Amino acid sequence: MGSNGENVHAKTTRLMVELVKGKEFATQLQNLLHKPVEEHGPLLAEELALQILRSFTETLSVLSSCTGSSAQISAVDGGGSGGGSACSGETKKKVKDRRGCYKRRRTSDTWERVSSTMEDGRTWRKYGQKDILNSEYPRCYFRCTHKPEGCKATKQVQRMKGNPILYRTTYFNHHTCKQAQSYLPHLIIHSDPPEPNLISFQDNNNNNNIPSKQDDRNSQKPAINISPVVKQEDTQSDIQDLSDAKPTLPWQEIIGPETIGYKPEWAPMRSSYQEEVVSGFHSCESTSLHGLDMEVNQLGDIDNLHYFDDKMY
DNA sequence: CTCATTTGACCGGT
DNA sequence: ACCGGTCAAATGAG
Fold first, then answer.
1. What is the tens place of the pLDDT at every residue in A216-238?
2. Which residue ranges are recorded for the region named Disordered (predicted)?
3. How far is the CA of A33 from the C1' of B7 (A)?
4. Is residue A71 part of a domain?
5. Nearest-CA residue relative to C1' of C13
6. Can you give the three-state secondary structure of chain A, one letter per residue?
7. pLDDT above 50 for A94
């Protein structure tokens, strides 16, 4: 980087163009959200959201090329082991050939999900967190709370580089615990007071569990954010940052008042997606993940679910 | 007291 | 040698 000023200038211009475009799309989307869905239909909003994402992707791509490295940033690249560094983020560490080359082996039981929420209807226990080279955000490691029972499902969650509102979650291994078999969270949007925009997840099996005590404990966590207006009524341990006073509820912002009530004053107006990378199948997983995705997508959220085979990643 | 999270240390893959 | 993943003691909340 810095080796060719002309290119940098051109790229800066391109960045500006992309960002302006993204802002325009976001503005259009915002305006759209103040109109009844019947007027424009759901597809237009989705198209705008896609344009915004595209703008982000392009911006990240330009930023990536600024480094002059092999960094590859995409809309779903959370800056994991292969992530690149930002233009301004010239690493102070001496860079050797092996740096950033490490890649965890992937199997067919590994898949990745990019989401505005790390919610997946499972109960997880955090067992580690690491700062990842060239990544702005730490990677958090979770295992199924039923590991003592033999469940080998794990997941990694990391905020996406350049788009920290998105979570990338990588899942590893299937759930073998039985709790998840019966676990079928159902996304419910509460439009009634006292908690406007309240969204809760309830399973179909009367798992009417109290919110985990992690809920407020996790307010320290940087990586996992669920809006406080999202209420979890299951024993989902990865509902975190519920106490965070500055929530992000992407689908909420995207779908606007017509769908779920109203956008709170404090809700930041931005194209917000969170990255969730999940690894491995819960063998106990039945429908919760996909069911949730479906619900969220219906609300305008954009999830990217990537399955890995041995060669991907 | 119990249990989840944090975080530095260690291990093993690349 | 480096880096990511996991372990486990320390810490803290309920």
1. 333 333 333 333 333 333 333 33
2. 195-221
3. 43
4. no
5. A217
6. CCCCHHHHHHHHHHHHHHHHHHHHHHHHHHHHHCCCHHHHHHHHHHHHHHHHHHHHHHHHHHHHHHCCCCCCCCCCCCCCCCCCCCCCCCCCCCCCCCCCCCCCCCCCCEEEEEECCCCCCCCEEEEEEECCCCCCCCEEEEEECCHHHCCCCEEEEEEECCEEEEEEEEEECCCCCCCCCCCCEEEEEECCCCCCCEEEEEECCCCCCCCCCHHHHHHHCCCCCCCCCEEECCCCCCCCCCCCCCCCCHHHHHHCHHHHCCCCCCCCCCCCCCCEEEECCCCCCCCHHHHHHHHHHHCCCCCEEEECCCCCC
7. no
